Amino acid sequence: MMRSFLNFEKPIAELEGKIDELRRLADTGEMNIAEEISKLQTKVDKQLRATYGKLSAWQKVQVARHPGRPHFSDYIAALTTDFTPLAGDRLFAEDNALQGGIARFRGFSAVIIGNEKGYDTESRVKHNFGMARPEGYRKAQRLMQTAERFGLPVITLIDTSGAYPGVGAEERGQAEAIAKSIQTCLDIKTPLISVVIGEGGSGGAIALAAGNSVAMLEHSVYSVISPEGCASILWRDGAHASEAAESLKLTAQDLKRMEVIDAIIDEPLGGAHRNVDDMTARVGDYIEAQIREFLPLEPGVLRAKRREKFLEMGRTGLH
Asked: In which domain, by residue range, is 47 found?
């Protein structure tokens, strides 16, 4: 499988290139080079630990956007059975950027909603790069209300650079749809577990993330605006994106420290894209633990806890 390396991973790419070359030689039967491959793999692991142990905010943005990072469809395939997609907002149209449906998750029936970015040009265009239109957020509201009606937990997996900013989306009430989706998150009387699996961009993300429990993957990001957008406003130059990323405090570590999120889910060495099966299993373990914690609570208590949690964020630092 062709691997994709980020700019700061060049030393790792060179070492892995040597490993691939040695493996090709080994396949020809000309020589036994297992020991040499093992030594190089040890060097790769050491380099990965050193590199990923000190990523800057901008580098984390790049990791969060890595094309090989597990998508919503990967989590559905790995963690659920009998997934039945539910389409349409019953008002205008279907939105492929936002997927959702009913599934069995580790013995629980649940409603699962999330952004799908797509893997190649064709699928990315189909899913609008994970940027939902108003009908996507209205579909999310419908699915969350369906979950409440049947007493099912809601799982949301967030991975979007933001809501789609096109003229048509604005004409159809993008801001109102996002606001109503946030309101629905806060209103439903069933557990809502949210995980930012890649990018958590602005209102387009929080529309799905006002949950009882909000987690981020170790190298995911969550912010009010993209670093490029912030740089274009403050510096009038997108080249300052790395500076903007530092200022935005958008990393999982920053947000956990500020108590905006509840937990950080560790990624495999070198990022989620290096071991998709391991990453999906870790996310599944987290979600299962949260459902078991929240499902026994009374519906009114669930709703009250969720609302109080977000109100408390606004009180921080005011005393």
From this structure: 7-54
Residue 10 is predicted with a pLDDT of: 87
Sign, CA dihedral 75-79-85-86, equals negative
> Do 126 and 259 share a structural domain?
yes
* 50 CB-contact burial (10 Å; exposed 0-12 / middle 13-18 / buried 19+): exposed
CA-wise closest residue to 72 among 194, 157, 164: 157
The pLDDT of residue 31: 57
The DSSP call for residue 266 is P
pLDDT tens digits for range 292-315: 999 999 999 999 999 999 988 877
How many domains, in total, are found in the chain?
2
What pTM did the predictor assign?
0.91
Instruction: Count helices and strands (H / E) in the chain.
Output: 14, 8
211 close to 193: Cβ distance less than 8 angstroms? yes
Q: How many degrees, rounded to 5, is the angle at CA 146 between CA 145 and CA 150?
A: 115
Instruction: Report the C-alpha gap between 177 and 226 in whole angstroms.
Output: 21
Token digits for 203? 């209102």
